[in-house]
Specification:
Radius of gyration: 25 Å
Distance between the termini: 84 Å
Strand content: 25-35%
Order of helices and strands: HEHEEEEHEEEHE
């Protein structure tokens, strides 16, 4: 048998083996669905969350969305990471476990300040630029602020600047890791609705900068 004919024979055998493996996998998947039920989304912790930790943007990015057979999904497991935004862990949550709604609670007020947030708002921490004027008098200098987002330029022109959240409660403000000098960032805890929070979390990824305007 020539070398070319042997190569074609090996190729045909490999294709047959791949087809058989696919058929077996499909049959196994169908059998699993029949035995354990359809797949459903659940949120799984990719890192430990200590008791009392509020789920902010940093922790939100560590929550993983997986699909498991319905039989194995515990009742009360969250189905979207965003459902945990602004909530606080009642007890230590270990990595690799399902995130349950009963493990989280609403706690209004940040760093000892009184609550007063409406039922549709939750405390959410975001990183902002140019907050030196607000930091000077101390945390929470202004009761309400406008959150302004400046995007990266798409071409030769300047980036777009717009108000992403208007007149939101400023609950706390502290210097970022670089300190409180010019051009540094600050951690601002704001009372946001879910829609505002998701918009600003996305802005942290694509925007050139996120700033606060006092007196909103």
């Amino acid at each position: 048998m020539s070398r070319r004919r042997r190569a074609l024979l090996f190729l045909a055998m490999a294709l047959l083996a791949a087809g058989a493996a696919a058929a077996i996998a499909a049959g196994y998947g169908a059998s699993a669905v029949r035995g354990y039920g359809p797949l459903r989304p659940v949120v799984v912790l990719a890192a430990d969350v200590p008791a009392g930790r509020r789920i902010g943007p940093a922790q939100l990015r560590a929550l993983e969305l997986r699909r498991v057979p319905e039989r194995f999904a515990p009742p009360g497991a969250l189905v979207r990471p965003e459902e945990a935004l602004g909530l606080v862990a009642r007890a230590p949550l270990p990595a690799g476990s399902y995130l349950m709604g009963a493990q989280l609670e609403v706690r209004h007020g940040v760093r000892g300040r009184a609550g007063g947030l409406g039922g549709d708002r939750r405390p959410v921490e975001i990183m902002v630029s140019g907050a030196g004027a607000l930091l000077a008098p101390g945390p929470g200098a202004g009761p309400r602020v406008d959150v302004v987002v400046t995007t990266e330029p798409s071409g030769a022109g300047p980036g777009r600047t717009y108000v992403a959240a208007a007149a939101v409660p400023l609950l706390a403000l502290s210097p970022g890791p670089e300190g409180s000098g010019p051009g540094t960032t600050a951690a601002a805890t704001l009372g946001l609705t879910r829609k505002q929070a998701l918009r600003l979390i996305a802005a942290e990824s694509f925007a050139r900068k996120v700033t606060l305007l006092p007196g909103g």
